[in-house]
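Input structure tokens:
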């Protein structure tokens, strides 16, 4: 259980919203209140908003007529902006003030209902944008079962390299190609060299894959040359999203040594549009699972008692595949995986502390990927590379087709939910992307 200090009136599951679709909503009940950037119908200007049920509250409009008073006024104005960088940079306290006031304004019995109601738009009619200008993007490798599964394919006797349990492994990705959910994904072309080939050829990737990850939005940053101590690291997280680190496995296998991922990864990365706050996820915090016997303890700069007690998340993660055949036959998207964020070897705070431990400065709106999250069981794997055992074990789809890797027209959909008795379930919405021909 999360400590009581993380919980407040905004977690009260008994409170309902006068926005009726929010009550019992699978993703966006009154207790979630994620921030994003959207354009309402008929007006292309991006502005900040909050998801509530099937609606989006225009925060740019709500911040104007004095609905947010005192210390909540300035951060609410920032949250209404065309990008959330300044709001993220304002830090945890500012965000909590806006959340608390939003909860009051949208709860049943709010005196301001008539004033707020015209500021709501049907989410289905809105266009979502990237929530922030992403200066830098870093992708980690903290899903240990994924690291083991992939490692086994290359090194059956020695799947994990000796640094894995000491260093949160990561690489610097590319921010320019991060796109919001529902943006088409062009199949990348590049150099491929199969094991039987002596020379590489150039052409469209034949082994296009997804990677199921959580995205971590950096809130308040740190100055260059200073490190974020582990005990303060969680306070630098501004929120969470779903992240699909699309990966061209054939390009990757040929290019990755000795410097790591490059063109196999940077052609596109898709994220869900809503920034789900640490406050909304507080009820779903759990202790970091104990390390297996024989594993080293984290080094002191990565070890904090409170972080070990509540730094992990019990968040359910799902991957769905919608192929042209399923679509043509009117069949629903097929669930490929049901896993959990609890299978990360490092907490998010450890990723943040490690990233800044050399004095590297993180900035508001920077994005971290956790790395692919796979469960220890076959039903909760986070990539096709694992699900099909490197393409050797095709998936049989209900439409009668099979898949090893993604084909043109295939759509990949991730969803995530926190669920716990006594609390309203909180969802992330979804990230989806359809593969377009090269
Ligand atoms: Mn990745």
């Amino acid at each position: 259980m999360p400590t009581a200090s993380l919980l407040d009136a905004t977690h009260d599951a008994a409170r309902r919203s006068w926005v009726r679709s929010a009550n019992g909503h699978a993703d966006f009940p009154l207790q979630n209140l994620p921030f994003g950037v959207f354009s309402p119908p008929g007006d292309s200007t991006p502005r900040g908003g909050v998801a509530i049920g099937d609606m989006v509250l225009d925060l740019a409009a709500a911040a104007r007529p004095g609905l947010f008073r005192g210390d909540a006024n300035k951060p609410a104005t920032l949250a209404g902006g065309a990008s959330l960088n300044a709001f993220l940079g304002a830090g945890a306290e500012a965000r909590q003030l806006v959340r608390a006031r939003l909860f009051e304004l949208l709860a049943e019995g709010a005196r301001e209902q008539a004033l707020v109601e015209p500021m709501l738009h049907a989410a289905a009619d809105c266009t979502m944008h990237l929530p922030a200008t992403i200066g830098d993007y870093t992708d980690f490798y903290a899903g240990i079962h994924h690291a083991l599964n992939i490692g086994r394919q290359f090194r059956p006797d020695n799947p994990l390299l000796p640094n894995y349990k000491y260093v949160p492994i990561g690489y610097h990705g590319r921010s320019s190609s991060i796109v919001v959910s529902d943006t088409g994904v062009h199949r990348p072309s590049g150099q491929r060299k199969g094991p039987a080939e002596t020379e590489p050829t150039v052409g469209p990737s034949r082994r296009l894959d997804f990677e199921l990850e959580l995205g971590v939005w950096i809130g308040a940053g740190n100055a260059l040359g200073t490190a974020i101590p582990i005990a303060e690291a969680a306070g630098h997280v501004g929120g969470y999203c779903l992240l699909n680190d699309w990966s061209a496995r054939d390009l990757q296998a040929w290019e990755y040594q000795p410097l790591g991922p490059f063109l196999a990864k940077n052609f596109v990365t898709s994220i869900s549009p809503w920034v789900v706050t640490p406050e909304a996820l507080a009820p779903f915090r759990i202790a970091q699972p104990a390390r297996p016997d024989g594993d080293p303890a984290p080094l002191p700069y990565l070890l904090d008692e409170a972080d070990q007690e509540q730094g992990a998340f019990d968040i359910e993660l799902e991957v769905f595949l919608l192929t042209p055949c399923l679509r043509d036959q009117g069949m629903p998207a097929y669930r490929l995986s049901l896993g959990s964020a609890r299978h990360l070897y490092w907490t998010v705070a450890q990723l943040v502390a490690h990233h800044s431990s050399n004095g590297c400065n993180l900035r508001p709106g920077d994005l971290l990927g956790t790395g692919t999250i796979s469960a220890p069981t076959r039903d909760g794997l986070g990539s096709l590379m694992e699900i099909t055992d490197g393409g050797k074990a095709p998936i049989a789809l209900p439409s009668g087709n099979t898949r090893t890797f993604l084909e043109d027209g295939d759509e990949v959909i991730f969803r995530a939910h926190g669920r716990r008795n006594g609390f309203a379930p909180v969802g992330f919405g979804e990230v989806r992307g359809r593969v377009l021909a090269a």
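The chain has a mean pLDDT of 97. The two ends are 48 Å apart (CA to CA).
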